[in-house]
Amino acid sequence: MDIFLGYFLYAMSLLTVGGIYALLALGLNVQWGFAGLFNAGVAGFAAIGAYTYALLTTAESQFHFGGLELPLVVGDILAMIFAGIVATIIGLICIRLRADYLAIATIGIAEIIKLILKNETDITNGPRGINKIPRTWEHFTEERFYTNFPMNLFLNQKGWEAFFASIPKWWWQPFFAITIVLIVIVIYFFLEKLRVSPWGRMMTAIRENEKAAAAAGKNVTKRRIEAFILGSVIMGLAGAFLGQHLRLIEPTQTFDPSKMTFLVWVMLIAGGSGNNKGAILGAFLIWFVWSSSELVTNGVIEILATMFDSVDISILKNRAGFIRMLFIGLLLQLILQRFPKGILPEKRPAISGKN
Amino acid sequence: MWESFWFEFINFYFIPGLVLGCIYALGAIGITLTFGILRFANFAHGEIMMTSSYLTWEFVLVASSFGLILHPIIGAIPASICAIFLALIVDRFFYKPFRNSPTIMIVIASFGMMLIIRSLVQVIWGPNQITFVKGIAKPNQVIKDFTSNFDMMLLIPNKHISILLGTIMIMLVFNYLLSSTKIGKGMRAVSDNPNLAEVSGINVENIVKATWVVGGFCAAAAGVFLALDTQFIESTMGFRMLLPMFAAAILGGIGRPFGAVAGGLIIGLAEELSAYPWLGNGPVISPGYKSGVAFSIMVLMLIFRPSGLFRGKVF
């Protein structure tokens, strides 16, 4: 039974992180797939979301700003709003830039965001990061939640302690995973509606032929800023959930551009940019490949170690992550050259609005 | 009268800024050439820099195991040849298939190459920092004594002298190449108008190869100089350089190699001088935000004068 439980929990964590990546890919799809905006700073927006959520909801700490202990949902919403505000400022400045320039600018923005998080130590605790971020569902088991409103209406402290002792420790994992998957589904339907709406068609028109769209009287700049903000808001939400999943965030390792920005790009391109279903599929698929490749590389290293006694396994183990990154990079090149449209190519909205 | 102001300003802010500017300038040459001739922002450029400094370190290490003590600049010669081949191989297998596709494809490909090259280096040499040159760099005694006679003591470490001289030499060769040789003229022609260049009988593919050779060489030089300056190498050093180099290329004007040099020097100086206590006692901009300076200059240029200081191209 224990083995099955292990598999089940592994599947739950795959679903959780896959869902978070799906959110990031959906956000990127709004920017790149819909509007053709090359955002190379996904990690920056995720970082804004994660830090906003963390600072607003964690318990008071002597290391960083906080102690507001806002309800978690408020934290999620404010994470989205704050990511949106930053995206608005950036959008107003940078949106007129052509794709390459926008990519350079957004890489820069992500780095600046990380610089701020690293240097403003009074607020963010700098490189040491923020710890004990409350996680949706699991936070009910924390004392500061079950002794306060509204949980104290149902049971007193003793009652809750007894209740949590009676259920398995991992009870929150499936709930957390399902919550994230539900949010992915809701955002998916919202974006699908948006894609076939006049706004979505306008986006396609602007992406395909900006001059023609402008000549037809569309406000190109405004629409592009809107798409940029919407995508960033979704990324901010994903960041908030990433913070919950990790429980400890710090600026450099957590928001490493190769794992956050680059992997999301591979997911979107593999799944099919412009296609929301493709973005979700790509996210889960690449995340599955990425995390199972850890098992594979570890297995290969074990085999190598038994075959050759002289091989120093510790070095190989240290570097296995980079081998995986190398393969993911090659996978991207392969997809770009052979299947540039991805697994699920973009479907253009039909004239009737039904697709 | 060599007041304490000038002593501090020149030795601790201006000269380091100039050295940093030289490194940015060399890196920006490659970026502006590929941007001008192939019309895309090459994100993998910083990684070629980084790889060549690792290769240099490796060559010096191998040579020392044979009992040869090489100066890193000698070790940089085989390393720069490897860097050139790396740039050519990357172009052949990962960029060439997209020559006729929308430019954004090749940008994504270069974005991927950035990660591939970096993880390759991390697989081979590990993720940790490696000491490139040991010891504390002492100021050159001859210059110190000589300038003290005039009451304006200059403290320039040998590493900075070799970086400055090396950059000037590369610039002179580069200037000759671009203004007096056939291949250099071809590069300028393709950069100005690729279609016109092609119909006037220039072999564009050869020019592209020449671009990678020049860009790869300059990147290798920049990488080794950076490693000489900071005295350590790490796998993220190329990525850290990427933004200032793009800023330099945009500041100078895309497709304008000498603009990129000027841009590099300006960015390097601006970064170092931003830490000078111009107002009051503390630095104007906290050193932690130094890399934000290049970025702000770049964004301002993109908004107000996208053609750069020297009328480069705007895509």
User: What is the SS-derived class of chain B?
Assistant: mainly alpha
Task: Label the overall shape of chain A.
Answer: globular
N- and C-termini, Cα separation of chain B: 50 Å
List the domain count of chain A as a whole number. Answer: 1
Runs of chain B in which pLDDT lies below 50 for 5 or more consecutive residues are: none
Largest sheet of chain B: 2 strands, antiparallel
> Which CATH architecture of chain B?
Orthogonal Bundle
Describe the model.
The complex is a heterodimer of chains A (355) and B (315). Chain A has one domain. Helix content of chain A is 72%, strand content 0%. Chain A contains 15 helices and no strands. Chain A has helices spanning 2-34, 42-57, 72-94, 99-119, 121-124, 143-146, 157-166, 172-196, 198-208, 210-215, 220-246, 251-254, 258-271, 276-307, 313-338. In chain A, helix 2 (42-57) runs parallel beside helix 4 (99-119) and helix 9 crosses helix 11. The longest helix of chain A is centred in the first third of the chain and has 33 residues, at 2-34. Chain B has a single domain (4-304), classed as ABC transporter involved in vitamin B12 uptake, BtuC (Orthogonal Bundle). In chain B, helix 1 (4-37) runs antiparallel to helix 11. A two-stranded antiparallel sheet of chain B has the order 1-2.
Keywords, please?
heterodimer; A: 355 residues; mainly alpha; 15 helices; globular; B: 315 residues; ABC transporter involved in vitamin B12 uptake, BtuC; two-stranded antiparallel ribbon; 12 helices
Q: How would the blueprint of this fold be written?
A:
The complex is a heterodimer of chains A (355) and B (315).
Chain A: H1 2-34, H2 42-57, H3 72-94, H4 99-119, H5 121-124, H6 143-146, H7 157-166, H8 172-196, H9 198-208, H10 210-215, H11 220-246, H12 251-254, H13 258-271, H14 276-307, H15 313-338
Helix pairs in contact in A: 1-8, 1-11, 1-13, 1-14, 2-3, 2-4, 2-11, 3-11, 9-11, 13-14, 13-15, 14-15
Chain B: H1 4-37, H2 45-65, H3 72-95, H4 103-125, E1 130-131, H5 141-149, H6 158-180, H7 182-192, H8 194-199, H9 204-230, E2 232-233, H10 237-252, H11 257-273, H12 290-304
Antiparallel strand pairs in B: 1-2
